[in-house]
Amino acid sequence: MNKLPPLKIGTAYHGNRMLHHARQDLEDMVSYGMNLVVHMLSHTDLNRHKTKMKEMFALSEELGMEVWVDCWGLSGPPGDVSHFLAYHPESHMVYSNGDLAPVHACLKDPALLEFIKGWVDTVASCGGKTVFWDEPHMPSKMIDGKKIYACCCPRCKKAFEEKYGHPMPELATPETDEFGTDSIIEYLREVTDYAASKGLKNATCIMPQTMTPQELEGLFKLPNLDNIGTDPYWSPVPGASPNPDVYKYVYEKTRVIVELCEKYGKELNLWIKAYGIAAGTEDDIVLATLAAYNAGARTIISWSYYGGESNDYASANPLASWSRTRDAARLIRDKETIRIAKECEKTMPSVYDV
């Protein structure tokens, strides 16, 4: 029999901290074959909901769901703006033209690393099992048609000059892109090593436009990064032109990660867009989920529960988006059951075969 890892289907759950309501929502997920949930543990949760999150993790596991804990907004987007920067204003990223990056903390900052390690301690004490390092990236912006990049704080400037032998340029170059990628990898090495020392597994997701396949390979060499994925959202930001062939786009982006995971022996996570869905296009969720499954993804997660209803970026019809997300989960769960059944019949044919 073809030994593939178990199929995991899940969704991101946030916007609610009331356990009686969470039970209803989690049972809804389970009824459609979902067995993984991604919970946020934001700075606000650290201050206000730590006990509730511990109980929510336990409730999720009671219902048979694997729990991932998302570092939502701790160092800046994705997620909330970084509350950490209110305590450490010196830790801001800086753009190459000298502008302060208002909501991003420098990944090389020692104070940030100390804060993140304290957050990992909280995850462990709350019963978390897997840390999800959500979309680490280096921000950039276009000004007068020129790409301005971060981080160019004094610490990063010094590290860049020591590595390349000359000062950081004002505009982005292949060297600055490489330096930014290396900064992400160095950050993930530090935090994943620490999480592993606390008995936790580590997963991350990298946006397709953030790194080339060659740059991604550096992540796959991190010893304590267990699961690596991507989120091929066919219309990634409001106002962006949607990809005309959702199935093809998601399939091809998934294959890139699948092949790297097979090469380096890593697990894979693949994210499906289930928020900000325009009315009448909810079937795209099913097409994308099927594409990811057929391309070889074994952990498929949607962002987010109920069409993102709790957020300003909610789908136009959250119920319709969630309905199709559930249909997609059931579809690939049924396909997986049939696949396993066929493999079983190869080794032990049915007595009803003629």
Description of the structure:
The structure is a single chain. The chain has 354 residues and is an alpha/beta fold. It is 44% helix and 17% strand. The strands form three sheets. Strands 1-2-3-6-9-10-11-12 form an eight-stranded parallel barrel, surrounded by six helices. The protein has a two-stranded antiparallel ribbon with strand order 4-5. Strand 4 (92-94) and strand 5 form a beta hairpin. Helix 5 (110-125) packs parallel to helix 7 (174-197) and helix 9 packs parallel to helix 10. The longest helix is centred in the C-terminal third of the chain and has 30 residues, at 318-347.
What is the topological layout?
Blueprint: E1 8-13, H1 19-31, E2 36-40, H2 43-48, H3 50-62, E3 66-70, H4 84-87, E4 92-94, E5 100-105, H5 110-125, E6 130-134, E7 140-143, E8 146-149, H6 154-164, H7 174-197, E9 201-206, H8 213-220, E10 227-230, H9 246-264, E11 267-273, H10 283-294, E12 299-303, H11 318-347
Parallel strand pairs: 1-2, 1-12, 2-3, 3-6, 6-9, 9-10, 10-11, 11-12
Antiparallel strand pairs: 4-5, 7-8
Helix pairs in contact: 1-3, 5-7, 9-10, 10-11
Which keywords apply here?
globular, alpha/beta, two-stranded antiparallel sheet, 8-stranded parallel β-barrel, 11 helices, single chain, 354 residues
